[in-house]
Protein 1
Amino acid sequence: MKKLLLMLALLTPLALAEPAPSFTAQTADGKTVKLSDYAKKFVVLEWVNFECPFVRGQYDPGKMQALQQKWAGKGVVWLSVCSSAEGKQGYRDAAAMQAQLTKEKSQAAHMILDPDGKLGKLYGAKTTPHMFIIDPKGEIIYAGAIDDKAKLNYVDQALTEALAGKPVSQPLTQSYGCSVKYNN
Amino acid sequence: MLTSFLMFALLLKVELICDSSQAQPGDTVTVGLRFPYAEGWHTYWSNPGESGFPTQVTWQPEWKGELQYPVPEVFTIGGITCYGYEKEYILRRPWKVTKAGLKADIEYLACTADQCVQQREKVSLKLPLGPRKDSPWAAQLHAPLPQRTTVKVQRQGDKLAVELPGPGEARFFPKPALQINDSAPQPREGDRLLLTPTGQHARLQGLLVVAGKGYLIDAPIENGGTP
């Protein structure tokens, strides 16, 4: 317990276990989504750029899609987000993105298009992939990398712990990958 | 995408170089992975910062030591702060010469402001046997690298104040990651550099660069700095 409190103290300055900023965003399939639509649910935010080698490293072997499918089956809302600015790597308009999602066999509930980078900057997304998990109380319980660059998937671990009512053992990790291609 | 990848592959070709043009088996020489300059492309330091990926090298024969990195640069692109190189640089290590030679399998990420590509290269080195002789790379491979030094680090309000060993422009590069906010400014106040920590750490570890010179530091963080 003491250890946990200490760990939480360490992490507070990075806005973990703090309310997730609310947002309204447009999806590739022409819908408007709000974070408040998913109150009382676990929400995953996944920053993506389909031309980034680290995103390819997740999608080509089907790892990300399998994770999306596994947790969608347990009621977790998975939102992919593309914050690539127009003209930068990974940018697609809505129609091209829809076609890409089909090709990728994405299992995400929605793909948010964020070419002005507003949502990315609101959450401090730095890399693709960059992962955030929001709990049913609306608090960020995980922020960081998809995995440890080897076998351990941090998102799978955090969701497994959180859905079992346990605290997340590694709530903050250093994300790695391509920089999010913001329009500076 | 494909064109830029090919262009990049032509521009950047890692070389395995050695400080000796010949040596005897059992001699310890210095070898280096030389990353050439490619305009607009940068590769990463051992802590890449807020994005990026550290270079991974698999050696044959197996070697688990830590490569020595020269002083990196700071890149801030789209508000994201990274540490790396947009210039020629060399990652060094010692090698005990064998007849069989040395092989390296290198994986690294290279990025421009707009895109990133992952590269994999295989390089090898076999030295002619004979009394050890300097090669044309000797001077570069023996150039000074960051040295360990002792500095005082104190908490000062919500900042960390690092006592600087000398005058000139200063920058701290954290290693491991997640010690400080990489994107926060690092103002110099007199003989101190002010950092924005990300939590209550007991020590500050990384590379302090002052007037272009690198100092490796691993200092306990003391309480009660004078404002």
Protein 2
Amino acid sequence: MSRVLIVEPDKELAEVMKRALTDDYEVVIAHTAQNALSEADELRPDVVVLELSIAKHNGVSFLQEFKSYQDWQEIPVVVYSQISREDTGLSVQQWHKLGVNAYLYKPTARLVDLSNTIEQLLINYETA
Amino acid sequence: MTREGMSDQTLRALAYELKHPLVLIARQAELAATPNDIAQIQRTAEQSLRLIDSFLLSAQTEYGQQQLAMEPTTIGSILYDASSELRSELLRNSYELTIDDRVHDPVMTHRPALTSLVALFANTVMSFSDDSPAKKQLVLRGFKTKHGTLGIGVFSEHAMNENDIKQALELAGEAHMPLARLSHASHVSLAIADSLCSAIGGVMSVKRMGKLTGLVTELPRSEQLAFV
């Protein structure tokens, strides 16, 4: 079973996301960036789902730190955020350069969209 | 910042912050199957409504549509009202609540606005948490100031200072990248709290009491009840 690390500061939303994914994946939740790095080290996730509004941290700096470890550079990252991509001021290409494989906007992307995106990324990852 | 500027910013902050509980409601509804799921959706909706009510109070005052009707009341009764509003959030975030009402003098205030203000202070103070699973302390406190006025505030062991507050107020309502060390929730709670403080004639500030730090405001004393 593939492993998914959810980095989401809101505990209730994180639990809802876990519930949506738990039939198909082994899911671990981290509420902070620091916690996410230690969970990633332990879990060795196949996909990371990231909210950019990580309290007391910067979503971009988390990504940069995460991707700075050689073992984790190829792990697909899905941003699932309350901040729209347009509001971040970064283009699709810039997010891609940061190591983001998909950007989903929480208000419009349903849990089923998140699940489908993860599934697609894993298929791509396995066939690459 | 101009008065109009602050209103616009508070409005943006509210719109931005409301996305969060609405997203939660929408996603909870996707999976809702049990009475517990429905209860969770209801709780999230009620939190959003409280935020809107607080905002409406401050916006109506700011735009001169309403003069807040001040009445004499005791700080203790405000603290107990606020604590019952906060009950489910305290439980959810593993907080132990203490009500420390060491003053019994009456104050002249707008009761719903001050109750909302204490709840907003509490939400903000909780957002400074280090996210440890350990049981945390939250103290709702009434106190006397050095210059004889009365104050009300919410305290915890979490470190915070005036700079945090200033930064949060500046960023409220912005989809800021890179993000500050505070959550969006604390930005908007602070922006609305700041506005409510002005509406009831107070000023929001950070205060240290022993090992605890808190958000507080001073209140005018009620001479009328003191006389009675």
Protein 3
Amino acid sequence: MRTSPWNWRFLTLVLFAFLATIPLATPGKLGVQLKLEKHTLSNGLTVYFVENHAVPIISYQTWFRVGSADEKLGSTGIAHLFEHLMFKGTEKYPAKSFFTHLEAKGAEVNAFTTRDYTAYYANITPGLLEKTIDLESDRMANLKLDEAALLSERQVVLEERRLRTDNSPSGRMQEALWQMAFQAHPYQWPIIGYPEDLFRLTVKDLQDFFKRHYAPKNAAIVVVGDIQSEPTLALIRKYYEKIPAGEVPARDIPKEPEQSSERRLQMTDHVASEQFSWGYHVSSAQDDDSYALDVLANILFQGTSSRAHRLIVEQKNVALSVNGMAFTPTFPGLFIMSAMMKGDRPAAEAEALLAEVIREVQKKGVTEEEVQVAVKQLTVMLIDSVRTPQGLANLLGTVHAILGDARRYNEDLEKYLKIKPADVKRVANEYLHPNNRTVVVLKKAKATGDAK
Amino acid sequence: MIRARKFITIGVGLAWSISGAVTWAAAPEATPSPIASATATNQSVPDWVSQAKLPVPKIEKLANGLEVVWFVDPTLPVVDLALMIKSGNRDDAAGKTGTVQLLSSVLDRGAAGMTSQQIARAVDSLGASRYVSAEDDTITVGMHGLSEDAERLLELLGKITREPTFPDTEVKQESSRILDRWRHVADTSQSLVSLVFHRLVCASTPYSRGGFLGIQEFSRVARADVVAFHQHHFVPSNAVLMVVGRVDPASFRKLIEARFGSWQGKAPKRTIVKLAHAKLFPPKGAGVVVGRPELTQAQIRMGFQAPLISSPDHYPLLVANTILGGFFQSKLNAKIRDEMGLTYGINSIFSYSRELGAFSINTSTQNETVGKVIKRTRELFQATIKGEVTEEEVRQAREYLVGGFPIEMGTLGAVASRWLAGYIHELGPEYLNEFIPRVNAVTLAQVKAAMKKHFMGKELLIVVGGDTAEINKSLAAEKLPKFKPVRAADLL
């Protein structure tokens, strides 16, 4: 259904920042009550509950630790295509059952695939809980895969690719950036895959993929909202416990070698002004540097008074926008920065200014006040992100998928509290150097035919 | 425009990003706890959902005519403040289209002795966010932040809306940025096709110009036009202040009185400009194609003007739309995506401005299959409006709309934004609570009658963006006429 490179660290950051920056406040007083329960079934399936009876809604999510990072060249896109096929039915519940039994009763049913994990969700009213559990457990055990479903869904995925990548200037740039930045690690290929690989996939490949990755031991259920945990756990046991455990497949993933010089690509497209994207290799989520990188990203890019926006958009007026974020997933990720130029200004002008902004931090560091403001900004964003059962379930599922236990959502609190201006300066110097950078510049194509 | 799917939602600018959870006050004598009734009976929409009441705000009017709408909820420590002006793009003076867009860009770039950067830093340092949004019928200025900062956010909101200074350098800079951003409308066929479709559907209505008509006309908009618009339209009798989230109403009301009580001004006089866009209209039976030969996928929009949201046929039409293209297993998506694999998605939707409704079908497909998608979509559309709808489909659509209601209304922010949309459309303060019973009451006969009355005989305006040569080949293969070509450059 949709691909989503979710920035899990960003989400966790905001949670901790939130708890950290309001003295004497308890989560309860602030309206964020996280009584998180964890259970493990006899077949290894992990189950998380958070009861919240404020609204009659439940978000029921199933997370599998498999994403495009688990693919090989030649079969790219299988994780995402498989996600589509998970809606194609079983003996008991044929294709469209998720829609006739759930969506037709008002539920929001969808799924997303990332580089590291795949998640399926149903936002439902309480009356649909047992049917959801029945449907989800049934397809985890009994999914039917056939040629007809593969052929039609492959066409749909190719249309999705044309929409998001082939006919999208920013989509093309992002695909090229990851492709160039990673030369050994599977983060190099797009989640949606290459068309030639999608054409190569067979039903047998998909059956093998299903058997290897879609098993209770490699999954977690996250249920947040208007439930009572005891009867819900009983239902989950009833439907899931009979499914064979399977294994947690080993991730045999090559390490990305250190980048020794800048990589640069120039592309063209029919756009009104030049654009560019930079990607610096940064740490993974497990590395403590990711916390300081988040704070750095915030100081540079969050809001119109941020350092990069102020210099490049406001003072020098050479770009219409400038953005950046530290993407630190399961494996070492990328700090991505992008700008869209104003009028006929060349990308090189904003590139030079962005380099200046970074050099300034590297030489002089940031202030204590900037760190505090960043944390406060993130406080509000936390409350926004967990205000719905779906938002909270997304957070817990992501932490589970990346760190192996959703309860770790709060153990990093002290790490954020300890971030000092010196840490921000250190990570800026350690990661944001030109030899560690990949650059994609998009230039204006000459008008052709009836284009413009 | 606001969009209607399950319900009505408000445009980007009025998107209330946050607030606490809604308290679903069960109606008197409503019964068992949700989970108990739900799991015991496995009933998808238990009685308590249809009996539940959404919060209705407290509304008061200050002596100067400013309406204050309160959605107070202590659940989360956040607050949304928004001042909505009941004038929008359509109120641009003749020959000055884009004034409202420029005003919305410069409103927070200097006010009450503060510079643009001082305002930005003042808001950012609170961890808060701000927005100014211009729509067809409204301009909204909003602040979102922690409740502990509500007083400061109100102060900044008051300064921005009442005392903007519109510095000349800022106006010139923003004007130039708007022109540059406008040129990016041709970067993707999605935005190009939507622009042409909007102009065709809104032709000869007060919304025909949109927010931006073209570079030439916008170049004539000067600082004096922005100042004049602000003077005439930013007046208390033309405004609504909305307070959503955790505040103490008694003390906060005093602060509102202090910031907005002295605000004065007469109700604005409106001028209405209607354009025909005659050059864009295709010959009968054909469509328009915006040429982008380098693209491998075409964007498609099809539709026409539809009844207003206040129409007595609104609910039957909502059910009809759900069946046709309103959800994943609608007739259109089931056929064109799921069965034929021709698209990533196809949907249909109603959009509403105060004085205009519009119906549209939206999809994308390879250039080579445009003819096939258009032909099949037309066939499904015609069959549906001619009455190929079953009792079961109506029941399912009703269930979808009613069952999705609690999910749609899951936060106070969602309730507040829908309520405000309804307020603009004069649907009455209780209209949110009418949704479930009104949908539940829709019959098959009403659905058929509404489609016959409002859809039958209407020609679908069709706009496609992509490779003209390939698209015309695909049309010819389906025995459809060639589409009228439109150059992107001529739209700017």
Protein 4
Amino acid sequence: MRRLVPLMLAGLLTACSGAANPLLPASQRMPSEAGGPFELVDQTGMTVTDQDFHGQVMLVYFGYTNCASLCGLSLATLADAMDAVDPAGSETALVFVTLDPRRDTTELLAEYVQLFHERMRGLGGTREQVDGAARAFKVYFTVNEDGDGRFYSVDHTRWSYLVGRDGRLVQAFGPGDPPEAIAARLQAYLRG
Amino acid sequence: MVDRRMVAVVMGAALVAAGAAAAADAQLGALRIGNARAGATAPRQATAAAYLTLANGGGAADRLIAASSPAAEQVRLHMTAVDAQGVATMRAVDVLQIPAGGVVALEPGGLHLMLEGLKGPLAVGTTVTLVLRFDRAGEVRLDVPVRSPREIARAGGGQHAH
């Protein structure tokens, strides 16, 4: 029953927004497996791979900086969860991966992650690098091209991931999950 | 939602009003606008989100038909929703209906005002001006406080509290 709570909250969120209630098969809601090899570029311009994070726990979200509402909410929630359990980030990496590397440059990522947490890392790179990371984490997205290519949106799966020390998914969370729920799962994993 | 003529008209009206200060909250005819706040942005960030609550105390429905800000190229009302594959989408909404006696809350992760093409970063502790135009209630100029994204997520509450 506990697993249902985030799903119900996610449904309520959508109901509050006035959209159709997405009563989906569970298989479409949250991946039960994610993670794998990736190579990206961090906010300092350094190339990083999945190997750099092995041995650490990751709280990771895929989005884009022009997604000011949902992505901000998801990243703020992860930052709150991390502060509740491991504020210094001694065992936990707090990671934002952009799905929009064309607009989200290394310089912008460096500024953007600071809005959320001094320990947050912002990963981007080439379109191919980002596509590869998204595939590994089963993140699906569509770039909605518009006329002048400036104010387009990027549809994307909305999960936040708790990734274990082995680089594999421990649990996915939806935007309706409060930081307390993520913090509790992180705490259990770190101390388990 | 872009209406440059309206911006000019509203700014002209503000000059005539000679110092009548805009506030974060407002009563505009039958409409009460409250809990307005905008998310702080990074210097290179092009987009900000703003939220507020619209309560219609009147006997007739009203509609938000235009929004603008001197701080951005354009302001659009956006809806974040989840499609049949669990994918979050963000789409522009042209007109927002506020039913008679109803309350519409713009909240993180749902309806929000998107300030696109920011002319400068929004810093915590400052305000950003929003101009909203309603079909019945008319136009209002709000000085919206800028808060950190984490504060907005904690206080925004829609998805956690309902």
